[in-house]
Amino acid sequence: MLVGVGIGPGDAELLTLKAVKILGQSAKVYVPGKLAAKLIKPYAASEILTFPMTYNQETLEKHWEENARIIASQARDKLVSFAVIGDPNFFSTFTHLRRIISKQYPEIAIITVPGVSAITSFAARANTQIDHSFEVTDGSENKSKIVLKAVKPRKIAKELEKEGYNEFIYLENLFAEKEHISTVLPEKGSYFSMILARKP
Ligand SMILES: C[S@@+](CC[C@H](N)C(=O)[O-])C[C@H]1O[C@@H](n2cnc3c(N)ncnc32)[C@H](O)[C@@H]1O
User: Fold this and answer.
1) Residue 72 gets which letter from DSSP?
2) Which of 35, 92, 110, 178 has the greatest number of CB atoms lying within 10 Å of its CB?
3) Cα–ligand 1 centroid distance for 20 (angstroms)
4) What b/e string do you get for 14-29 counting C-beta neighbours within 10 Å, with b at 16 or more?
5) What is the distance in A from the centroid of ligand 1 to the CA of 119?
6) What is the pTM assigned to this prediction?
7) Any ligand 1 atom below 6 A from CB of 193
8) pLDDT below 50 — which residues of the chain?
9) Extents of the domains making up the chain
10) Ligand 1 centroid from CA 152, angstroms
11) Taking a C-beta distance cutoff of 8 angstroms, is the pair 196, 171 a contact?
């Protein structure tokens, strides 16, 4: 099994208990650079895999494929972690690895452990608060929207369809008892819910 582990924004005390546990249980831990290796040093030894900083798609694919091969050779019969700065599902090297491993080595189960992301943790350091809608961008086209407090899921989706959104996931009580995740939107939602909307 392969686990993409988020290790937080840069402070070894901002790893979650779950991240520390999984890293400790892993037969092998890979990281995409020195910073991640240093950050997890108190909890696990790691091996650095090289991911070049380039926009050359061919070079990138070559390294992703080679690293996917190295990881897959271990993850077939062992618990293997790939530890990344922040959260492994937000603008992460892990997304590319996951895409290649799922396609070329479908026998390997893949899960992720969320990490404290720069996208939320910056507020603590900037000494600021966000309590209104905001945008996160890396300059690419905006194709996702997260709606908080999704108490009227179907009504929300109907409104979003007018903006071109056509894929919806309703998520309630995440990581807790009575967690409920569905693409079938209920008429009424709970306060502890959100909708992820996507457009093509
Ligand atoms: C490839 S993204 C990785 C994001 C990461 N997966 C996360 O969830 O935080 C890298 C970008 O995230 C931001 N970033 C990540 N960690 C940061 C930190 N400790 N301080 C400031 N910005 C950070 C920077 O904009 C950086 O260029």
Assistant:
1) H
2) 92
3) 20
4) bbbeebbebbeebebb
5) 7
6) 0.94
7) no
8) none
9) 2-120, 144-198
10) 33
11) yes
| CATH superfamily of the domain spanning 2-120 | Tetrapyrrole methylase, N-terminal domain (3.40.1010.10)
Burial label, 144 (beta-carbon count in 10 A; 0-12, 13-18, 19+):
exposed
The pLDDT value given to residue 169:
98
Q: Which of 38, 90, 91, when mutated, tests ligand 1's pocket best, judged by the most ligand atoms within 8 Å of its CB?
A: 91
Cα–Cα distance for residue pair 135/149, rounded to 1 Å: 17
Which position has the token pair 């306060």? 191
Contact 74, 27 (CB under 8 A): yes
Q: Report d(CA 40, CA 16) in Å as an integer.
A: 11
State how far the Cα of 123 lies from the Cα of 37, in Å rounded to an integer.
25
Pick the atom of ligand 1 nearest to 138's CA.
Answer: 25
The answer, yes or no, to whether any atom of ligand 1 lies below 6 A from the CB of 51, is no
Please report the pLDDT score of residue 52 as a whole number.
86
| Cα(14)–Cα(4) distance, integer angstroms | 16
| CB-CB contact of 26 with 81 (8 Å) | yes
Does the CB atom of residue 116 touch ligand 1 within 6 A?
no
- Range 139-148, long-range pairs (CB < 8 A, 24+ positions): 143/198, 143/199, 143/200, 144/196, 144/197, 144/198, 144/199, 145/196, 145/197, 145/198, 146/194, 146/195, 146/196, 146/197, 147/194, 147/195, 147/197, 148/194
